[in-house]
Amino acid sequence: MENKNKFTILALGLLVSLLNIFDGLATNYGYSYNFIEELNPLMNHILTISPELFLIFKFLFSILIIILSFAVYYKSNERFQRSFVMSLAGISVIYIGISIMHIYWLSYV
Length: 109
Prior knowledge:
Keywords: Membrane, Transmembrane, Transmembrane helix. The chain crosses the membrane at residues 53-73, 85-106. Pfam families: DUF5658. This protein is an all-alpha fold and 109 residues long. The chain has one domain (3-106). It has helices at 3-32, 41-49, 51-75, 78-106.
């Protein structure tokens, strides 16, 4: 795989991680002030147990995404790297949409 494509793995991994952290912070803020509801049942359960646990989980998940991105970058074959890039791209699109929703409601708070 070309270096450009390998760089895409790291760039998208970092983007997904940052968007995940933003989602966690915005969700926690909105949930704490009853502006929004968490729609993901698993994350809603964690959030109702403890907002701090929710944020720790989101942060650790972001670290895991970065670690996996580096592992794929260095240790996987080209075919898997292409699939991984496509997965990260899809997740990025979803998180960008979620971030836009967060920014929208945050602009009214």
